[in-house]
Write a structure and sequence with these properties.
globular; alpha+beta; three-stranded mixed sheet; 17 strands
């Protein structure tokens, strides 16, 4: 049994033993628990959640496998506002270039004075572990060559409530996209992309995580970030970006006494995060209530969907490797987002689906399925930014370049240009009311 299959099976058994029954009959939906209190949403007990939080906050060292190329030393470094699991001001850099036919190509980044060239990824890491005392003359810092003229900044994303997002059935997003397109007479049509589920070899799922919907499961998403942002290899992402300066044994992430890998614990932590709470005092104010009505009247709700519902407890998701537990089953949550890809005039020109997210072996295995989806159409599309927790974000949109809510609204073009124009035509008091509503999220 290969490492990927054994990891998926192990995680399924250890994480779902208590709720492996067949899906139950539909029951009235419960509301998702909310809060910034670092507490569990009910999927785990508090002691387990706090232990997983400590792993999320842990600062990785070279001896643990940090790097050789990396952006951060812990998950918390990029996801901590106001507490662990939130977003932050930390950004990442992605680059590439267009070929003669205008197709996006991943960059070629020479390191170590040209000794090696990094390929197969659009991400450029900002940090490196050497030169250091063990490798005083080895310089592997990535720098963008002049040839890579497509350049994009991406802000870190909020992880609160992602366990509920993962537990939404694939078909729900497919149906949402169809209904959205129908109700707007083909003017607003969110794109669904089917992407590999790395822990379930050969299986695909509806992407919902990352700015380009590059992942369908949280385990795949976290294994990707563990390697590409921190430099820690795992059974799901076993290949280092470069072996220069590397001294830690592979894979860096090994199974612990409890049978779990660190990526399993990190995934369990994110699945147990509560959804972002509203500012209830602000939300109940008459001006915010009026703004909420205007939010719908202007049409913002076409993409910033107020509410979604998870699959029933017992449903198998993520290619059959995870069973929706009672704490996540039949739950209504309020993300103010559809988790679909849209062209709203802010796309960064980067084609996201490439080997870095799935590992070269999985990418090669699934390349045929990926190519059938015309993924080049996603080049200038971004995932709708969920608005829950918006009031705690000082830098807005995917690149953080919009600094006020008004700026962000008026920046919308493409599929959202009519909505942006409707907002611009509102009177000053109505504009402020809509913005006051957004400040309550």
């Amino acid at each position: 049994m290969n490492a990927r299959i054994s990891l998926a099976v192990l995680f399924l058994v250890l994480s779902n033993t208590a709720f492996a029954a067949a899906p139950a009959a539909a029951t009235p939906a419960n509301e998702a628990p909310t809060g910034f209190d670092n507490g569990s949403n009910g999927i785990t007990d508090e002691a387990t959640h706090q232990a997983d939080l400590a792993k999320f906050d842990e600062v990785e060292q070279i001896a643990n496998g940090l790097g050789p190329l990396f952006n951060a030393q812990s998950c918390r470094e990029c996801h901590q506002n106001p507490v662990s699991g939130g977003a932050s001001q930390v950004s990442e850099l992605r680059v590439g270039h267009l070929d003669r036919d205008g197709h996006f190509q991943n960059p070629q980044i020479p390191i170590a004075r040209g000794v090696e060239v990094i390929t197969g990824r659009s991400l450029v890491n900002d940090r490196a572990i050497c030169p250091n005392p063990s490798f005083p003359s080895t310089e592997i810092q990535e720098r963008v060559p002049d040839t890579e003229t497509v350049r994009a900044i991406r802000m870190s994303v909020n992880l609160f409530g992602d366990g509920f997002v993962e537990a939404v059935a694939d078909q729900a997003f497919i149906d949402l996209a169809k209904q959205q397109c129908k109700s707007t007479h083909d003017r607003i049509c969110g794109q669904v992309v089917q992407v590999p589920i790395v822990e379930a070899p050969g299986q695909m799922g509806v992407g919902r995580f990352g700015w380009k919907d590059q992942h369908a499961s949280l385990l795949s998403f976290i294994a990707d970030a563990y390697l590409n942002e921190i430099g820690i290899t795992s059974p799901l992402q076993p290949d280092e970006v470069t072996k220069l300066c590397n001294t830690a044994p592979e894979p860096n992430d090994t199974r612990g006494p409890d049978g779990l890998y660190d990526i399993d614990r990190l995934t369990r932590f994110v699945r147990a995060l509560k959804a972002p709470p509203r500012d209830e005092g602000r939300a109940l104010a008459p001006v915010a209530k009026h703004g909420s009505d205007l939010f719908d009247k202007v049409g913002c709700g076409s993409c910033h969907i107020r509410s979604l519902k998870t699959a029933v407890a017992g449903s198998r998701i993520d290619g059959g490797t995870f069973i929706v537990p009672p704490a996540l089953g039949s739950v209504t949550f309020h993300p103010y987002g559809d988790f679909l890809l849209h062209d709203v005039g802010t796309g960064d020109g980067v084609l996201q689906v490439n080997p870095e997210h799935y590992g070269r072996g999985v990418f090669q295995q699934m390349a045929g399925y990926l190519s059938k989806q015309h993924l080049e159409t996603t080049q200038n599309k971004m995932r709708t930014a969920p608005l829950w927790g918006l009031r705690l974000r000082p830098r807005l949109m995917h690149d953080g370049s919009s600094l006020t809510l008004r700026d962000a609204i008026l920046r919308h073009r493409g599929e959202a240009q009519d909505e942006s124009k409707k907002f611009d035509r509102l009177g000053k008091e109505d504009q402020e009311a809509l913005i006051e509503f957004l400040r309550s999220l």
